[in-house]
TrEMBL record:
One of its GO terms (molecular function) is hydrolase activity. InterPro entries: Metallo-B-lactamas, RibonucZ/Hydroxyglut_hydro, Sec-metab_biosynth-thioest, WH-like_DNA-bd_sf. Keywords: Hydrolase. Gene3D superfamilies: Ribonuclease Z/Hydroxyacylglutathione hydrolase-like (3.60.15.10), Winged helix-like DNA-binding domain superfamily/Winged helix DNA-binding domain (1.10.10.10). SMART domains: Lactamase_B. It comes from Saccharomonospora piscinae. This is MBL fold metallo-hydrolase. Residues 37-252 form the Metallo-beta-lactamase domain. The keyword Ribosomal protein does not apply. The keyword Hydrolase applies.
Length: 345
């Protein structure tokens, strides 16, 4: 008897959790990540098995997925298709070795093509597109910390794990191999090509990283940067809010009762954050780095300097995204001298 996904166990605990008839949540481990796990969802329709997201291409996740599928009476060769919410390594890359071995088709949002092309560039250094943005944000101190961290523990840079999908997903209704109808909705923000999948018949929404129960996803880590990622993210939240409410099936964290309730929380959070950032600029902080130094981070209200280098970089880029949106709204003015971006109230 598979356990119900009722919160009795921590969401990262390995296993197979029944979410709804024919739908199961499979948490897979993530190496070197504070998130600990990513949720892959198995949809069973007769003999067809669709996976929403795939996990990180590493031995530990590969073995955990094989073990979980065996609990469903299936193997990796029985997966009919992968539907991927976005191009990040923990969602996309495990599907690729499975495809090489079993021929399983992989589908990814069409707007991810520029990012996929960027990450697949041979010899591309880690955070190649973010380092210039950090310098523009006044974050040279963070760049130094990142450089030291990368020298001590090099991040994965193997461009051979990145391959093109078999299908570029576009908005609209899509049938799974087993015949279940899913609505594909483009939700740019966290990545340019992020999509969510809505099963209206069952009242379920596979939200990927777009709507998460405990955190707001980063919008500054784009392999192919976009002009106003926070604007895109907030608009995407409102698009999701306009859909019928559904049970939230996120990529990280436990499943939730209401997508609408969490979207409302996220919109309120970013409204407050925009106000706080504008106020911080009025007090004399003029770069994204200076603003980030004055703000608390995470639910524990941690100082920027107490975060690890990668999360310091995410924080500074997050502030930059808020600042650029405030400029676009004419709440602040921004000046770019070609090296540094500064802001004034």
């Amino acid at each position: 008897m598979r356990p119900l996904d009722d919160g009795a166990r921590h969401w990262t605990e390995p296993g197979i959790y029944s979410v709804a008839p024919g739908v199961h949540r499979i948490p897979l481990p993530m190496p070197n990540s504070g998130l600990k796990a990513v949720n892959v969802y198995a949809i069973i329709d007769g003999d067809a098995l669709t996976l929403i997201d795939s996990g990180w291409a590493c031995d530990e996740a590969h073995e955990a997925l094989e073990k979980a599928l065996s609990g469903l009476g299936a193997g990796l060769g029985d997966v009919s298709e992968f539907l991927i919410t976005h191009v990040h390594r923990d969602h996309y890359t495990l599907a690729l070795p499975v495809r090489r071995e079993h021929g399983t088709p992989v589908a990814l949002g069409a707007r991810e093509e520029p990012a996929l092309r960027a990450v697949a560039t041979p010899g591309r250094p880690p955070m190649a597109d973010q380092l210039p943005l950090l310098r523009r944000a006044g974050g040279d101190a963070v760049i130094t910390l990142l450089t030291e961290a990368f020298a001590a523990t090099p991040p994965p840079t193997d461009d051979t794990v990145w391959e093109q999908p078999d299908e570029w997903l576009r908005e609209g209704r899509r049938r799974t191999v087993g015949g279940r109808t899913l609505d594909v909705l483009a939700t740019p923000g966290h990545t340019a090509g992020h999509v969510v999948f809505s099963d209206r018949a069952e009242g379920l929404q596979f939200t990927g990283d777009h709507v998460l129960p405990h955190i707001t996803p980063s919008v500054g880590l784009h392999a192919a940067p976009v002009p106003l990622p926070l604007r895109d993210f907030l608009e995407s939240l409102r698009r999701v809010r306009a859909l019928p409410d559904a049970r939230m099936l996120p990529a990280h964290g436990p499943t939730g009762a209401s997508v609408h309730a969490r979207v409302d929380e996220l919109l309120r959070h970013h409204d407050r954050r925009l106000d706080d950032i504008a106020h911080t600029v009025s007090l004399g902080a003029h770069t994204a780095y200076e603003v980030a130094l004055r703000l608390p981070w995470t639910r524990h209200e941690t100082a920027l300097s107490d975060l690890d280098p990668f999360n310091q970089a995410l924080a500074v880029l997050e502030v930059a995204a808020h600042l650029d949106l405030l400029v676009a709204r004419a709440t602040l003015t921004g000046t770019d001298d070609g090296v540094l971006r500064t802001y004034r109230a």
